[in-house]
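Sequence in, structure out.
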Amino acid sequence: MERKNLWAPWRIKYIQGLPKSDGCFLCDYLEDRDHDKENLVLWRTERSIVVFNKFPYNNGHLLIAPVRHIPNLDDADDAELLEIMRLTRDCQKALSAAIHPHGFNVGMNFGRCAGAGLPGHVHVHIVPRWDGDTNFMHVCSDTDIISQSLIELYDELRQISVKENLPSV
């Protein structure tokens, strides 16, 4: 089979940022409360932050991280662990109300070899899934199709947060 290219120039920011970045974007977002919408910070709680993944695997891909910059679950205290799990539940609830996924992948990556793009700050990935969403684009082209803008979904989830009394900034 002849190999073909599908151009995805928006990915270059991600690719260029990986080897050069010494900082932690999650910690940067925690300090920059004035730009939550631009940074796609959905919720802040006492111990955690919920942000959109700017390079998502699927529409609604969220990250939940403790406020403390810690690399592993071993370093988290019980209150942080409990809050992260509760936020995982709340994210699923809000995403279900907004975009009606058929399921979710929830996971964590520890170390670059395991796929962690930010190995120094532990975080949970929540990825909404739909029946048949692994289509020919992903299988044949290693390309993901995202069907809604991040800002549009951000606004929708913020409205649902108020309606459902979920965490807010």
